[in-house]
């Protein structure tokens, strides 16, 4: 009898152990198939919501493209999962969203619209990663272009995929230098770290490249809070300036250009973001040959790969108002996917130090266009283009912007080597 009882106990114990082992295997399989969580922290409501939503659309399409690949469908490569968190364009909200995203299992934080928010996120992530190494995260920055973020404030956990303000200004200066009729400019920008950096760099580079150009006026205004730019536009016109240099984006740019048009200002606008978000439609015919913008890419870049890239985005998002494509964001997602897989076997627990190490060496391309990450400061190196607004259908303007009837003809192309600038970063590595 005792033997029978012992045998039954052992049998039950073996059954429990088998089920437990099976459960571990199932859990392991589930863990292996879990997607890599990406958290987009962006102003999706408020004054700059149009810029936040544009970023989200680009991320959606980039993630969809990665997830549609056979390697992902077969499970040999990790799928990506994009979640969005609304910062409302506020630093406190962005920091709350960061905590929520980490609690939700995010491994990568995606952010761009606001250098002030980016700086706060970098500081918070540095502290979090030191305090909680088991849940380290990496910040991927696609639009916060204050030069300090990859210079004196550089971080091992932060990677920037956009050209910073000094790089963009240097590209704009290529056109300003060629404009021999230009004798005076007005500098205007948003009153925070990025806007201040743009004006500082404009003064610096004008002194070197065009010392004959007078600065007729200089102005900083509150970020995202000005509803009526007519007083600013009147000051610009009264100054006698022949051109405006601005880093304004989103509604702050659109409303400024609208006001300038309303007061009859006929000068040029040298901009960082004048090629979209309502600006071309706002200024209309008055902007032909006068609105100049710099970007990492524009739809009218003359190559078959560029055209295929642009057409595929428009097929995914056919509404005219959704037409704002950022090549750099797609290269960023490509680099992320590449680095994640290179850091270890699919489905395995990833050491985020190893992932960051792979990102430092990232070299990516898409439709024949690409760039590479510079390990010394985590500043992505890529070509830049400068375009001037023209009517769609004119020479070099096959595609318009947001159904406005106006597009940008590429007038300057800088290679990655030509756009590269030195860094003062002293990278601290874990």
What's the layout of helices and strands?
Elements: H1 2-33, E1 36-42, H2 49-67, H3 70-73, E2 80-86, H4 91-103, E3 108-111, H5 115-131, E4 138-141, E5 158-160, H6 165-178, E6 184-190, H7 193-209, E7 214-221, H8 230-239, E8 243-246, H9 251-262, E9 268-271, H10 279-283, E10 291-295, H11 304-316, H12 327-342, H13 352-360, E11 363-366, E12 369-374, E13 379-382, E14 384-391, E15 406-414, H14 416-419
Parallel strand pairs: 1-2, 1-3, 3-4, 4-5, 6-7, 6-8, 8-9, 9-10
Antiparallel strand pairs: 10-14, 11-12, 12-13, 14-15
Helix pairs in contact: 2-12, 4-5, 6-7, 8-9, 12-13
Give a structural overview.
The protein is of the alpha/beta class and 430 residues long. Helix content is 43%, strand content 20%. It is built from 14 helices and 15 strands. The chain has helices spanning 2-33, 49-67, 70-73, 91-103, 115-131, 165-178, 193-209, 230-239, 251-262, 279-283, 304-316, 327-342, 352-360, 416-419, and strands at residues 36-42, 80-86, 108-111, 138-141, 158-160, 184-190, 214-221, 243-246, 268-271, 291-295, 363-366, 369-374, 379-382, 384-391, 406-414. The strands form three sheets. The chain has a seven-stranded mixed β-sheet, with helices on both faces. A five-stranded parallel β-sheet has the order 2-1-3-4-5, with helices on both faces. Helix 4 packs parallel to helix 5 and helix 8 packs across helix 9.
